Structure formats: structure tokens, C-alpha cells
Amino acid sequence: MSSPxxxxxxxxxxxxxxxxxxxxxxxxxxxxxxxxxxxxxxDWVHDYIVNTIGGAPSCLGYxxxxxxxxxxxxxxxxxxxxxxxxxxKDGDIVNIDVTVDVDGYHGDSSxxxxxxxxxxxxxxxxxxxxxxxxxxxxTVKPGAYFGDIGEAIQNHAHQHRYxxxxxxxxxxxGLKMHEDNIQVLHYGKAGTGLKMEPGMIFTIxxxxxxxxxxxxxxxxxxxxxxxxxxxxxxxxxxxxxxETGHEILTRRSNEDDLP
Length: 259
Ligand code: MF3
Ligand code: CO
Ligand code: CO
Description:
- This protein is α+β, with helices and mostly antiparallel strands.
- Helices cover 27% and strands 25% of the residues.
- It is globular and about 45 Å long.
- The two termini are 31 Å apart.
- 2-amino-4-trifluoromethylsulfanyl-butyric acid (MF3) binds next to strand 4.
């Protein structure tokens, strides 16, 4: 297993990859309006990563994943495959999950976009899920435990009578898209798990369901959906543990409310 602690030189490279990842999401978010297909989202993301950034989409070909971005719509929890047949309509909510490889270093981040006039319930789920991410991030500092992140997220979700998906978690990231040196559960108990140290880099990416936490895998072997077909939302950032706290490596320029 590779060390979970990155060197200053590696951190600088991963910081650049993280900034580029944020830039992709800023570029694509305003284009996602009713009538657009998830296949178009894939093409915009792919072209920007390859031609503007000069990087590579880490998802493309990852364990056979066929596209350059994950697009998960409404009751899809994660790993939705973009398709030219999937037309987004007014009221849909979609998670766009982008991982960018710049010179062999990776940043990983995802956002929710709501199209047109989403329901009050959909807007609330998106807001609370983002709050779950931010509350998780707020716990990150040297000496804290990974269980602190999980408890903060779980408490907030349950306060709103939502459930937390348990089958997928945050992960070490940087030298690969998924490093097996760190696992970030989005549920659990404060004071448990691995202790955080400066130089650790990992994602926090809570998947929060409006209904029950149970999920199902579609026959495409990628798309994860809620069993009860109720809505699911997810937000993700790549986080560095610093000497004094944390740095959000995938921070977007319009995010002025981060912990
Ligand atoms: N970016 C996703 C994550 O947050 C991973 C996508 S893997 C893929 O971990 F193969 F589905 F693209
Ligand atoms: Co991701
Ligand atoms: Co991730």
C-alpha cells in the first residue's frame, strides 16, 4: 500500500490537478439546461480536459468505464454513464463527477446541477447534501479522526430524515484516482478510524438519499440507483490536510462559503 502522506512536490502537482478539475466543473455547469443530453456533457468535459487543459479524463477506461465523466440523474446515486439518448428535462437533478489527470496527478470533484424549476424537495436534498460535505470538511485537521467526518455527515443527513449510502466512500487520491491507503466513510463515530496527518489527500463525497439507503446496480454494471427510486444527491471535493487544518484542492472560484 502506498503512503497516505504526500511530499511537498507531490502536493504542488495534485493542487494543480485539483484546480483544473474545479475549472472543468465551472465550465460545464452553466451549459447544463433542459434539452441537453448527458452525452453532450461528456463531450464538453472530455474536450476541455484534453484540448484546453492538456490532461486526461481519469474515468475513461477505468475498469472499463466507457466515458470521461459520470452523470447521475435523479434516483441515480453514482457512476451514471453519459448517453446521447439521455435528454435532461426541466426539474431534473444531475451529479457531474469529474476526475482530471494532469501529468499523472489526479483531482476528483463533483457537483449537483438542478435544471429549470426543480421541486422544493429536490432543492432541499441538494442543499443538505452540500452541507453534509462542508460539515465533513470542517472536521479535517491534524489529529482529528476519519470517524469525525463520518459522524458529522451522518448526523446532518439524519437530522433532515435522509439516509447515507454506505457502499461507496471517499478515498485517497493524487497519484491515482483511487488510492487504497485511505477510506473515508460517510457515516460512523467521531474519534474512531485513522488519525489525520499533514500531507494526507483524500476525497469526501457523501451520497445522500431522500428515502432509504438501499441501492441497486443496473444491468450496465455501473449505474447505481436507489432501490425505492427516490432522489439521491452527491457533492465531492479533494481535501489536503495542512499543518493547521485543511485546504480544499478542488475549490471553485464561486465557492465563497467553504469551511
Ligand atoms: N470519480 C468517481 C469517484 O468519485 C469515480 C468514478 S469511477 C468511474 O470516486 F469509473 F466510474 F468513472
Ligand atoms: Co469523483
Ligand atoms: Co472520488
